[in-house]
Structure prediction request, 273 residues.
Amino acid sequence: MLDVPKSADKSYADGKILQSVADGVGVITFNNPDKRNAMSIEMWDGLGSALIELRDDPAVRVVIMTGGGDKAFMSGADISQFEKNRHNAQASEEYGKRSDAQRALLAHYPKPTIACIRGFCLGGGMQIAMLSDIRIAAENSQFGIPAAKLGIAYGYEGLNHLVSLVGPSWARLLLYTGMRIDSAEALRIGLVDRVIPDAELWDATSEIARTISGNAPLAIQAAKITIAQVLRDPDQRDMAAIKAIGTACMDSEDFREGRRAFMDKRKPRFTGR
Ligand code: COA
Prediction:
């Protein structure tokens, strides 16, 4: 079983973004617990660097994102920076470009991603969670988008994901009120995939990650690419990309290994080729 990383292989933003790898699983920790893991602009940059490094590391087959401490996944953007960096539309556009670039990385990430959520998951934290492929939450989690309490617009990408997960009506209720919902409600409306007792969250999440990392990488890529295309408008779908990854799977060494291992009644060893 993977341990919750106690120390990092690498860190960014003065230790507020941590990165580690074990057993084919990359872990990124938002590590600003005194501020409930609020994300400064430097942390957004650090998140991007960690995502790129784990993306390009062939030993990494899946990435978990989680929050440091036991109170929060992420409380959103660091509001204390807004007066300087995000005080009007022009400043906000500049600010947005930096954090948008990291979110775009996540949106087009080639490897599976899991948000491991404990405590508060708010604002930009919801966006990171929604951009992840899978959301596993502790029972003590709370979710919300308090944009209307701050007077900011949440933006197209974030709402696109929210509406596709929970539908337009819940999206309106959450956005108009800025209310927080608990993990049971989040599970019921489809915002998270699984809710786990607090003490078991990490073990349960790392078990899912280890299962993914033991499966055939090309087959997972095929699922990821195809599901992403299903979510697009029909006339925008890249059917050629779906065909190409399907062909790569069927011609792969891993497919041969998978069927032989099944016949030999042994565990397959997949290489991603
Ligand atoms: N940006 C900057 N600082 C934040 C923050 C954020 N998004 N979220 C929390 N903090 C800071 C608080 O100011 C406080 O700092 P202090 O110790 O110097 O006073 C510290 O983190 C602890 O927060 P506190 O509110 O005392 O803890 P709590 O457990 O009672 O509540 C939250 C936690 C997350 C519910 C609450 O802090 C909150 O609502 N944060 C803002 C969330 C938000 O609006 N996010 C959207 C940003 S776009």
Notes: Residues 35-36, 38, 71, 75-80, 120, 122-124, 146, 150 surround coenzyme A (CB under 6 Å). The first helix runs from residue 41 to 56. The radius of gyration is 19 Å.
